[in-house]
User: What shape does this take?
Amino acid sequence: MTSREQALALDALDPLGTLREHFALPPGVIYLDGNSLGALPKATPARLARAVQQEWGDGLIASWNNAGWINMPRRLGDRLAPWIGAQPGEVLVGDSTSINLYKVLHAALQMQPPGRRVVVSERSNFPTDLYIAQSVVSDHGGELVLADAPEDIPALLDARCAVLMLTHVNYRSGRMHDMAALTRLAHEAGALALWDLCHSAGAVPVDLRGADADFAIGCSYKYLNGGPGAPAFVWMHPSHAGRARQPLTGWLGHAAPFEFGTHYRPADGIQQFQCGTPAVLAMTALDASLDVFDLARKLGGMAALRAKSLALTEAFIAAVDTHVPSASLQSPREAALRGSQVSIALPAEVDGYAVMQALISRGVVGDFRAGEPGLLRFGFTPLYTRHVDVVDAVALLVDVLATESWRTPEFQRRSAVT
Ligand SMILES: Cc1ncc(COP(=O)(O)O)c(C=O)c1O
Assistant: This one.
């Protein structure tokens, strides 16, 4: 277990340590919720101000061409591509994860013969994935089949299975699937593999092409720090170009949108997945945040980010084991199975939600997810989280539990967003 002095020494040696200076973190806050909403990069406000005042204010409509607004979905996709194992020209930024999932799941089901109409996923998948899948399978006369545990997935990949739809890193447990192995099993069964990378992009190694995946979607407001409601992304294996047809056939997915023709004709490749006008200001914020990833690439790239993320999560698990023995770990101990977050559950007589509110009041920001059991989630964004944050966060958790400060009525009040 790491002492505070050892943690400070590790931070002094951290090859990624300088990246924290690029974030506007409030003083006194230990931010462990980057798995929900990433922190604000310092450069973002000025970039947004420039986009508003110069590009929009002065440039007006000419900025669609002159400031490159119209190309942003592809240009940002190209910037994102190396972090998810995709090639330039394969990723498109825009819409939300939910909407992009609707598009790719629809397209994937349509690529399969009529006898294959089952979508296999996990009961613990993020609800929006399950809700969208319920709608798409009902449109196709199909069925959504849910595995209760990761080990149950292979047996569900049978001759009826059209698509294996999984979230790479689970939002509750932070457990990471073996993307390559499961994609291979899906293909052997004749199914396509679709991956939600919301909790992976920018946090863990992802190799879509190496895994031979078929479709992927994900958000940019978590580890990518694109800001609240930042645009999502969508990827399709290039071999599906020309065969996959997405259902939201808007004008900017047309082969020649400025011909303003009457009939829809899909653009080539991933461009077909663009529906309408890009959210330029939101994309500008993501553009600024991706600059920090350019710096991270020079400091060791994903290998360095992953090494630091694992060091942080290991240290947190060890400290909780030692100092909070009543907590039960709900994330994998095995590093290879762990994303960049750690979830713990507290004994039934302790109100986990209230504990998290008490912790937040002391400056340690994580979040709480209701369920059986309720989870305290702690995200460790390697770009800006320090080793000393781990030690201090656990010390404050110990104090909140020992003093029972969580019993204060204000900490029991539920807000709309937990
Ligand atoms: C795995 C996963 N998919 C999707 C979403 C949300 O999708 P959207 O951005 O469309 O709200 C989340 C949000 O936390 C998520 O964790």
Remarks:
- The chain has a mean pLDDT of 97.
- The CA atoms of residues 198 and 218 lie 4 Å apart.
- The pocket of pyridoxal-5'-phosphate is lined by residues 96-98, 126, 128-129, 167, 171, 196, 198-199, 219, 232 (CB under 6 Å).
